[in-house]
Specification:
Layout lengths: L3 E13 L9 E17 L4 E6 L7 E4 L12 H12 L7 E7 L9 H16 L6 H16 L6 H8 L4 E6 L6 E6 L8 E6 L10 H16 L11 H4 L3 H26 L2 H17 L6 H12 L4 E5 L6 E6 L4 H15 L5 E5 L6 E3 L9
Parallel strand pairs: 3-5
Antiparallel strand pairs: 1-2, 1-12, 2-5, 2-6, 3-4, 6-7, 8-10, 8-11, 9-10
Helix pairs in contact: 1-2, 1-3, 2-3, 2-4, 3-4, 5-7, 7-8, 9-10
Organism: Aeromicrobium fastidiosum
Pfam families: GalKase_gal_bdg, GHMP_kinases_C, GHMP_kinases_N
Protein name: Galactokinase
Length: 373
């Protein structure tokens, strides 16, 4: 059908730089080879119909004049994108949309950014709205923050839009617009892979904890007289009286240093050094930023015991996924050890799979082949 526009948008893994994207720090995510496909067909009657292959999802319909609160659940990300497009001055006459996902939902792999960026890209393509990737990212962020209620930064959107095969995306969030730089990731050539451990634990950034961490960081920056908390000096924790704000600031400072260390390790192909940095990041997120959970901690511990060079939670936290840098021949042992630990706790069996750095959002043909976007 020539009247159907199709976009494939990958999920993302954040290698290092967690909770820095709203603190003016550097982040290093990568787009991964699991994606969301959005198929769109034009309508001219002001109606939007959405179908999804998510388990238990049924057709959802709403008007292009949809407002926050009108649609909830999985379809709120679609409705939010339509709302954000109109709110930013783009005309949308109506559409039929089909979403197909190869990303585990709630796993912290940015299925939400893949969905919102995919819908914005497909609608922009369908109606010749002239959206560049920066505008798509801003529309997608506006959808999540203004409609869904998750005050996210721009890291996820930029990662899924600007990713390239075998490369990470270094994002400088201290400048507006954020800058992106491609970083070659050479671990696969050196006999290593990046494994994801999807814990199955609940992951929802709109539940309030993410917003609370962001507010704490903003308070700390204000007390220090800074625009961005990542600009703080080494004496920042001494200058703050509140113990919680000290801990949050300590994470932002040390995580910023870890990103720079990780870049050096990647450039030098010093993989044990990178592994140590990943593990240190998890400890900081667990202890200073308090966004881990027992399922993530056990996943990281089991991965290290199975021979991973390093492991950490990835994403906003409170569930979701962990990542591990590991030799491919040790992935099965890692899987078995994590599954055994989860069984002891009577937790849902986790999903363990290898991911590869992949290309970002792109227009695809009916057979899924990439078209020049």
């Amino acid at each position: 059908m020539t009247d159907v526009c199709r976009w494939d948008v990958p999920g993302r893994v954040n290698l290092i730089g967690e909770h820095l994207d709203y603190n003016g720090g550097p982040v290093l995510p990568l787009a991964i080879d699991r994606s969301v496909t959005v198929k769109a067909r034009a309508r001219d009657d002001g109606a939007v119909n959405v179908w999804s292959d998510l388990a238990g999802a049924s057709k959802v319909s709403f008007a292009v004049t949809v407002q926050p609160g009108d649609v909830d659940g999985w379809a709120s990300y679609v409705a939010g994108t339509i709302w954000a497009l109109l709110d930013r001055g783009h005309a949308v006459p109506g559409a039929d949309l089909v979403l197909e996902s190869r990303l585990p939902s709630g796993a912290g792999l940015s299925s939400s950014a893949a969905t919102t960026c995919g819908v914005a890209s497909a609608i922009g393509d369908l109606f010749d709205l002239g959206l560049d990737r920066t505008e798509v990212a801003l529309v997608a962020q506006h959808a999540e923050a203004g409609f869904v209620g998750a005050p996210v930064g721009l890291m996820d959107q930029l990662a899924v839009l600007h990713g390239t095969e075998a490369h990470g995306v270094l994002i400088d969030t201290a400048v507006t617009p954020h800058t992106t730089t491609s970083v070659e990731l050479g671990w696969e050539a050196d006999g290593l892979v990046l494994a994801v451990i999807a814990t199955g634990a609940h992951h929802a950034l709109a539940d309030g904890e993410y917003a609370a961490r962001r507010e704490e960081c903003e308070r700390a920056a204000a007390e220090l007289g800074l625009e961005w908390l990542a600009q703080a000096g080494l004496d920042a924790t001494v200058m703050l009286a509140d113990e919680t704000l000290k801990a949050r600031t300590r994470h932002v400072l040390t995580e910023t240093a870890r990103v720079r260390g990780a870049l050096t390790a990647v450039n030098r192909r010093a993989w044990p050094q990178l592994g140590t940095i990943l593990t240190a990041s998890h400890a900081s997120l667990r202890d200073d930023f308090e966004v881990s959970c027992p399922e993530l901690d056990v996943a990281v511990e089991a991965a290290l015991e199975a021979g991973a060079l390093g492991a950490r939670m990835t994403g906003g936290g409170f569930g979701g996924s962990a990542i591990a840098l590991v030799a491919p021949e040790k992935v099965q042992a890692l899987r078995e050890k994590v599954e055994a630990r989860y069984a002891l706790h009577q937790w849902t069996r986790p999903e363990v799979f290898v991911v590869h750095a992949a290309d970002g959002a792109h227009r695809a043909g009916p057979d899924g082949a990439r078209l020049d976007a």
